[in-house]
Amino acid sequence: MKNREILWTRKKQPTPSPRRRPGSITHCNYWIPAFAGMTKRVRKRLFTRPSRIQNEEVMNGAECLVKTAKDLGISVCFANPGTTELPLVVALDTVGGIRPVLGLFEGVCTGAADGYARMLQKPAMAILHLGPGLANGIANLHNARRARSMMVNVVGEHTTWHLASDPPLAMDIESLAKTVSGWHRTCNSAKRFAEDMANAVNAAKQGQIATLIVPFDLQKEKNVEAAVVPDSRGKQSIHYEEIKSAAALLKKDKKAALFFSHNHIGRDALMAAARIKQACGCDLLTDNFPAHIERGAGLPDVMRIPYLPEMAMDMLSKYEVFVFIGSKEPVSFFGYEGIPAYYLKDGQTRFHLSNELQDLLEILEALAGELDAARITDAGILASFQRPKIPTGALNSFKICSVIAALQPENAIVVEEAVTTGVMYYPVASNIPPFSLLTLTGGALGQGAPCAVGAAIACPDRPVINFQADGAGMYTLQALWTEAKEGLNIKTLICSNRSYDILKLEYGRLGVLPETCASYLTDLSGIDWVSLGKGMGVPSVRVTTAEELVKELGKALDEKGPNLIQMEL
Questions:
Q1: What is the average pLDDT across 150-172?
Q2: Mean of the per-residue pLDDT values of the chain
Q3: Would you say 80 and 102 are in contact if contact means Cβ atoms under 8 Å apart?
Q4: Which is more confident, 58 or 115?
Q5: Neighbouring residues of 51: CB distance < 8 A, sequence distance ≥ 6
Q6: Among 289, 354, 413, 503, which residue has the fewest nearby CB atoms (within 10 Å)?
Q7: Could you read off the pLDDT of 524-554 as tens digits, one per residue?
Q8: Count of CB atoms within 10 A of residue 405's CB?
Q9: Which CATH number fits domain 397-568: 3.40.50.970, 3.30.420.40, 2.60.40.10, 1.25.60.10?
Q10: Contact partners, residue 451, CB within 8 Å, separation at least 6
Q11: Are 383 and 296 in contact (CB under 8 A)?
Q12: Architecture of domain 58-225
C-alpha cells in the first residue's frame, strides 16, 4: 500500500512526562501504536529529511538513477509513486533538474508521458508503483507503443530479500513489462544503476518504451558512482537503391499512393511529401489514427484511412501502387466475418521503402530529390485557407466539429478522442490555420485527457484542446485534477451523447437488437461532467446549442488555464 502523510494535531500538555516530550512522535492526539516500540534510531531514519547531495559523484542508487536521466536530457517525470519509490521521490529533490508532475492514476502518468514525447520528440519519465501500478498504466502504454513514443518507465520493486516472502503486492513485473516495452530490465546491482538508466534512455530515444525495474533496497544503497553511458541514439541510414526503386514505381503511369506513418509527421516532412505528389501525381495517405500529424492551410492534405473496413477497402481499391514509408500494410481494426484482415488485394503493388527507425524527413527529401521535385509550383497541392461556417441550432457531431475548427487558434494542439462524434473533425479542419493533431493510436480508451496534459507541459505557450468523448473521458478523468494543479492551458470539450456510441455501431453490424443487454451496457446516462470538472478544480459549463458553444469556447480560449465544456447532443 502507498504511504500516506500522517497529520498530527498537537495540544499543549500541562506537564510533559519524561517519556513523552513535546514535539516527539508520541506526543500527539492520534497515537499510532505501531510507532510505540520504535527506537530513536529507527524514528530518525524514517522521518529525517536527507540533505542535498554534497558530492554528486558519490550518491545513493536513486540519486544516481535520477542524475543519469537528467544528464541524458530527461526534464519531466510523471509520477504516481508508492512506498517502493520513495527514494526516487527524494532523489528528484536532492538531484534537481527534473520537473515532477503528479497524476492521481498511473494511466494519467503514462498517457501524459506519451503526449509529452509526441510533441517534443524526446523521452519523458514515469514513476510507477510495483506491478499493480504498471498494470494501471498499461492501456496508455499500449497506445504509446503503437505511437512509437519515447518513454522511460521506472517501476519500484520490493526489497530484494523481501520478495521471497511473497508480500501482497508482489507479482511478475518483468513479464507484464514485456507486453508493452521494447526494452526492459530489472536492476540487480546499484553499481549498474547509471548504466541501466542510460541504456533505458537510449532505447527510448529509438522510439521504444523502456521499463526499468528498481528494487527498494538498491535505490537506498550508498556510495554509488555516477558513470554515464554515452548517448547512442542514431537513426538507421537510408538505402539509396531502395529510394531509386520507389521513385521508379511512382513514375509509372499508374494510380499510386504514398503511405507514411511515423510518430511525428511534421511540417518539413509534409512539404517534402507535397513535392513528391506534385512530381508524380500520387495521393498522400496515413493511418486511421496517426500519432502526431501537422494539419491546416499551407500544408498538403493527407487522407486518413476510414475506420469502417468496407469504406477503407473501397478507398484503397482505386490504387495500383503503394509505397510504404515507416508503415505496415493497413489492416482491419477488428476481424469481421467475410472481410479480409488486410485491405489490399492481390495485384496491387506494395513497396516498403523504410522502417520506423529511419528518419521520415530524410527519406522523403531523398525521394523528392530522385524525382527532381525541387520546389512546389502548383498552389493546388497545398490546402488553401478557409474556416468552416459557424452553424446554429441544436448540437450534433458535424456542428461540434465545425465550431471547434472555426474557433481554434493558430498553432493549437488538438488531442482527438471524440470517437464517433469526432469523425468529421479531420476533414472539416483541413483548411484552417496550422495546428498539431494527436489521435488514439492504439485504440485503448482513456488517452485524450492524459495526452493533453503531457502536450501542455511540453508546449506551455500553445493552447491545447482535448476533444473528448464522455465514455472515453471517464477512464482517466483524474487528469482534470492535474490540469488544475499545474495550471495547464487545456480546453476539454466533452461530447456528451451519454452512451458508448461506437459499441452501438459495432453491435448493429452484428445484428444485435437494441432492446437486449447491449442497450443496458452502452447507456451512460447521469454523468454530470460540469460537477466532475468543478470538483477537480476546473471551471466547467454545459451547452446544448451551437450558439452557446461558440460563446463558451470563445471565452475559454481567451482565458489561460483549464476549462471544461460539456456539449450535450
A1: 96
A2: 89
A3: yes
A4: 115
A5: 94
A6: 503
A7: 999 999 999 999 999 999 999 999 999 999 9
A8: 24
A9: 3.40.50.970
A10: 111, 112, 114, 115, 118, 140, 415, 417, 438, 466
A11: yes
A12: 3-Layer(aba) Sandwich (3.40)
